[in-house]
Amino acid sequence: MGYEWDFSVVFGNFDLLLLGLVNTLKVTGLALFFGIPLGLVLALMRLYGNKALRWPAGFIIEFLRSTPPIAQLFWFFFALPILLGVEIDPFSASVLTFSLQSSAFFAEVFRGGIQSIDNGQWEAAKAIGMTRNATLQRIILPQAVKRMIPAFLERAIELMKTTTLVSTISYSDLLYQANTIAQSSYRTLEVYTTAAAMYFVVILACSLLVGRLEHRLGRSGEITRG
Amino acid sequence: MDYQWDFSAVVTYWPVLLVGLKNTIILAAVCLVLGLFFGLFVGAARYSSNRLVNWPATAFVEVFRNTPVLVQIMWFYFAFPIISPIEVNAFTAATLGLTLNTVAFSSEIYRAGIQSISKGQWEAAKALGMTYTEQMRRIILPQAIRRMVPAFTNRAVELVKMTSLASVIAYGELMHQAKTISIIAFNPIEMYTSVAIIFFVLIAPLSLLVQRLEMKKRKSS
Prior knowledge:
By secondary structure, chain A is an all-alpha fold. Chain A is 81% helix and 0% strand. The longest helix of chain A is centred in the first third of the chain and has 35 residues, at 14-48.
């Protein structure tokens, strides 16, 4: 163990690592922005659609949940551009992949949340003359969404961890920046350890936040997990 | 959209894909067995009231749960060899990363499972004169493990998906084989589509099993 640690490379390039972290958060944020509404649509199709809507929605959800994200990412980055005859840059491919990938998981969270609402709520809304859409919008979803918040945040954290894959198609997220610095400086131990520590700090902070929120919501009423 | 699909290269290179499939299954199986085995000890350590046992286990679990698994694999492949006395090849690095990740997650499942067993069971076992180990082995674990089965199956699903990350450090699993073939045969569309389908066929039965087990569990409780 005579290894001499030398973090000067890390300090010298810390701005690059921070830039990578910002890009990681950017992909995560955009994927959440598109993934959550898409997940709601998929969940509603699966729950209330007719067969022509229910089956495709179910298949899309199961397919996206049962294939590795890296296979999806490679498909959208290497295969789709040939199929469509357009160019897709790493950033767009990443956002596209992770929006779709997370939408499948969010759809299941929505489904769990909606199904957890007591049937009496539907009946009561019907009794005062609300249509199904109005019931869903005004009665069911507001209650369901509150219960789903912890599950959503947990999925968001998982998503942030999964976005490290974008480094394989050379989008400059935190891991990609670490790869680049490590390769040019040969200080792999210091660089990768620092990158891991940076992820740890950000993700742990989010996890602790989720834990506290879960605790608070847990006291005020039951919650569902995705 | 006038692309001519041509799956002939998939057929030609099928043996190469099979090798990849075999390696994917080996990696997943090794990591699952090791992960569940050591997860029990880490889970028990977190349950312990001794701080010297409890804190290191907690730190380990938090580190591996709160960092991306790809970073863990890269760390074991590129950084770990510098301080490691043994040589680290792609398989070792992937196994280390995925196993430790599985240990961390499964230890939480064990902990939750053990905590879900009512105190009365412990007390009754103690009243019969059983030692702590006997109580755990004969009374608590048999009941707890039954409740943990859906969560473990879920971990297995996640693990099979995670093995695809080993392609990044050039371990010859399914994804890596597909990447190699697609470069030789210039057919990324057919290749990556096939790989997605193979993974789906491999994983979908497992996820269906999870859903059924969870439904059964919900009904019985």
